[in-house]
Write a structure and sequence with these properties.
Elements: H1 3-27, H2 30-51, H3 55-77
Helix pairs in contact: 1-2, 2-3
């Protein structure tokens, strides 16, 4: 992986943590904040895949996407507060 892609993936992860904290502070709910964080982690995973594909990277990206889908389903079916 090139240094630029590694830095971009790291930045996406850091921005995801900050964005998730902002969403949690504004909404006071964990699930939307987790959904935002997972979106950024998906972006970071895809950036890592762009640098060179290995089965470990593909499995990690697929796992993050699967967790994101589960969180989205949980948000859709959770009762309103």
């Amino acid at each position: 992986m090139t240094a630029l892609l590694h830095l971009a993936a790291l930045a996406a992860t850091a921005f995801g943590l900050v964005a998730a904290a902002v969403v949690f502070a504004a909404a006071r709910r964990l699930m939307p904040a987790l959904a935002v964080l997972l979106d950024f982690l998906i972006a970071a995973g895809l950036l890592r895949l762009a640098g060179g594909t290995s089965w470990d990277a593909v499995v990690m990206a697929a796992a993050v996407i699967a967790v994101r889908k589960l969180v989205t389903a949980g948000l859709r079916f959770s009762p309103p507060h």
